[in-house]
Each structure stands twice: as structure tokens, then as C-alpha cells.
Amino acid sequence: MTFDVAKALRERHGENFQLHTDLLNPQLARVLKTLGFDRFYVRGEGCYLYDDRGDRYLDLLSGFGVYALGRSHPAVKAALHQAIDLDLPNMVQLDCALLPGLLAERLVARAHPGIRRVFFCNSGAETIEAAIKFARAATGRARIVFCDHAFHGLTNGALSLNGGKEFRKGFDPYLLPATTEVPFGDIDALARELRKGDVAAFVAEPIQGKGVNVAPDGYWPAVQELCRRHKTLFVADEVQVGMGRTGKFFAHEHWGVEPDIITMSKALSGGFVPVGAVLTRDEIFERVYSSIDRAMVHSTTFGRNQLAMVAALATLQAFDDEDIVERARHTGELFEKGLAPLVEKYEMLHQVRGKGLIIGVVFGKPTSRALRVRWSAIEAVRNALFSQMVVVPLFHRHRILTQVAADNLNVIKLLPPLIAGEEEVDYFVGALDDVLADAHRGSGLLLEFGTTMARSALRRGVPTASATP
Ligand SMILES: Cc1ncc(COP(=O)(O)O)c(C=O)c1O
């Protein structure tokens, strides 16, 4: 008998949290239950998720950025159905299949002219692992420089470049001391490190996901100049901000720079099949795959798997057909315009930052005395609790899925699908207005949050919905 997905989902309906508690990560189940985020989602389409009660949720998380095209995109689905029905000779391994070649061709065509080679893998972290190895092989140097607040994944190499203490704790020793952290946006700090002449690569996100941090004007061209002067490779981690999210296909294009290595993952395969791609200059591959003996010196079993290739090719096609990058830029402007009046209206809302459709809604201490007292009372319970108190009613009252941008940071991060439009912007702005009005009145928000969260959890330390990328 064949496995019947629909039947399994029907027969075991409602057991999801118990199974996770018993067999997977019980702490994740606990966080979600405490926040009241425990749902049984049954369908995802476009910008929306649907649960078993028939409720619809606006998904402004888009699977941490994978659903650029929205969920269940029909063209990507159709291509995948077709690929499965064709019984493709997948992963022959001792073969050079056509589809990875076609995808590489399309990716190289979208990158700057120096990019000539592509390596495929399965996740964002794997692209970083590859970038570290490639940079070391290409330069003959060991040290990698990264930024504070950086997030490049959680495998051992990527973790060594992670700027968040909360992720590192308990997993040392890392590749340190062969890695060095510098403040994001601080060109002098980077110069001091590169001057030592032993740095293989500077790895950085063009816009940081953790906190939605944007570097000062002039930073990226200066980074490129420094890296070239000191023969350090410049690696742009475009895993989250690539693929149109910022209103350009690659985020680094905003500053006219040409990184030596570009990493991509998340949105590349439309959210259907894990995939990662590392785009590099020719010279880098020449040093890594330097002889016939080294033809497989860096590879991974599922790397060029045909379903990932098909999903990515179909995704890129849909990007062109639907003018996704330009839509992201336009909708980003709508968010900016829609949220600006709220910054004027609410003392606690300090800033809206980001680019295109990676948006940080930044909260901070209010100016008036009464509000300051309330703010301090909330923050005394736990650092950055205020932003969590906004995320929870956005979900419960308005059925909008958002996240706190990072541990201990009063920033809510929005990563809408790039197909979002005016309707979604208006809905979110209205919902945020409602929740913040409540916070300013000091009426129901704390109460609503308190009843949603178990009192004991509050005492132990409130979990945040940011625990992940
Ligand atoms: C910029 C960046 N790089 C790398 C990663 C790691 O990707 P993955 O979770 O697929 O390993 C992430 C994940 O969020 C990311 O945002």
C-alpha cells in the first residue's frame, strides 16, 4: 500500500505538538505553546496560511524568507510534477547532468561579470561552509573576519562566524582563533584586521538579518577597496537578502560592489526543495579544483539534485514572468509610506529600517513620563519584552505572523513574500496601529499578553519567537 499523505494528516490530526514534545525538540513546542502560537496549519497559498479551524493568517515571516513567490506557487509546482513524472536520472553522480548547467547559466547571467562559476549544495549554512573552504584554498590564508550580530547559519564553520552569543554558548571551541569579529559597518576595525595580511575572507550580509541592520553609506565600496588592497576575498552572504528581497536581485547591487563570492539559498527553489548556491570568480575554482585529483574535493551528495534544480529554474522563470524584484521594491516603498505616520504617532516606535521587503520595526524608550514608567516595568521583566508583546497580539488578534528580530532586541522583523501588495501592507499597518494604540493607552495589551503567556513562564524568562533565523 502506498503512503497516503492526506490520510495520515487526517488520522493523526491534532497530534503534532504532542509528537514534537515526545520525539523532536520539546523546547520549541513549549515556546510556541506558551506564546499561543500552537496551530495545526493545513494549507499555505500565496501570502497566507490556513489552520484547521478555517482561520487565515498573513505570513510576514515567509518561512524565514524562502517563500519569495508565496506558498504553493503554481508554476513551480507544475515544473516539479513534470520533473517527477519524467523519471529523470537524478544524482547519477558520475555524470554532468544538464539541469545544473542550465541553472548555473541563469545565475551567472544575473551576477556581476566577474562571477563565472557555481557550486550547488543544500542549505544556507552549507554555502558558508563552502565559502570558508574556497577562500582558504584560494588565498592560502586561514583567518576569516565576520561582523558582530552576523548570522550565517549554525553548522560548525558558520557558527564560528556567528555574531550572536546566544547561538554560540555551549558549543565551543569553534574554529577560533582563526576567526575575528569586527563591528558591522565599522570600516576602520576591518582595516585594522586586513592590514595584518593573513585574512582569507571577510564574510558579511549586505543587510544583517538579526536586527535588520543597514551599514552606513559608503561602507560597502570601502569594504571592497580594502579587501582588494589586502588580497582578502569579499564574501557577500545573500542567503536571506538575495533573490529580490531588497528590491534588487542581489542586495549588494545597491552599492555597486562586486563580491568575490556570493552565497544564495532560501528563496532560490521557491520553498519546495532545499538548495544552496555559491557563486564565485573563475580563479577561486581554479585554486580549489586545481587538478584532476581534486575534482571532488568539495562536494555533497544531494548538491545538484534535479528537483532542486527544476524548482530553482522554475522560480527564476516566475521571477521574470511576474516582475518580482520590481514588485518587492514597490511594495517596500508602500510599507515605508504606510508605517511612517505610525512613527510620528507612537513614542515607542522609533524607526522603520531595512530595504525593500526586509523591514525592521524598531521600538525604544518613550519620551513622556507615564509611558516611560510602563515601558520600564515591562522591560524589567525581560529585556526586549515589548516587541514580543506586540508580536503576540498581532498573531492572536489580527492573525499576522511576525517575529522578534533577535534575542534581546526590541525590533520586529518583517520578511513578507515578495508577491505581497497593497492589501497586505494596509492590513499590517492597520493591525500595528491597533496594537500600538493599545500599548499607549496601557489598556488591554499587557493583560492580553499575560493571559496568553503562562505566569510561570514569565517568571522563568519569557521565550521569544526569535529563536531562529
Ligand atoms: C544570511 C544567512 N546566511 C546563512 C543562513 C543559514 O541558512 P540555513 O538556515 O539554510 O542553514 C541564514 C539563515 O537564516 C541566513 O539568514
Briefly summarize what is shown:
The chain has 19 helices and 17 strands.
Verbal overview:
By secondary structure, the chain is of the alpha/beta class. It folds into two domains: 24-59 and 324-460, Alpha-Beta Complex (Aspartate Aminotransferase, domain 1), CATH 3.90.1150.10; 74-321, Aspartate Aminotransferase, domain 2, CATH 3.40.640.10. Helices cover 43% and strands 16% of the residues. The protein contains 19 helices and 17 strands. The protein has helices at residues 5-11, 16-23, 26-35, 62-65, 74-85, 98-110, 124-139, 156-159, 165-168, 187-194, 219-229, 282-288, 306-321, 324-345, 369-381, 385-396, 422-441, 444-452, 455-460, and strands at 41-45, 48-51, 56-59, 115-121, 143-147, 179-182, 199-204, 207-208, 213-214, 233-237, 261-264, 276-281, 349-355, 358-363, 400-401, 403-404, 411-414. The chain has a seven-stranded mixed beta sheet, sandwiched between helices. A four-stranded mixed beta sheet has the order 1-2-3-15. Strands 13-14-17-16 form a four-stranded antiparallel beta sheet, covered by helices on one side. The longest helix has 22 residues, at 324-345. The radius of gyration is 23 Å and the shape is globular. It starts with a helix and ends in a 9-residue tail after the last helix. The structure holds pyridoxal-5'-phosphate. Pyridoxal-5'-phosphate (PLP) binds at residues 64, 123-125, 128, 151-153, 205, 209, 237, 239-240, 265, 469.
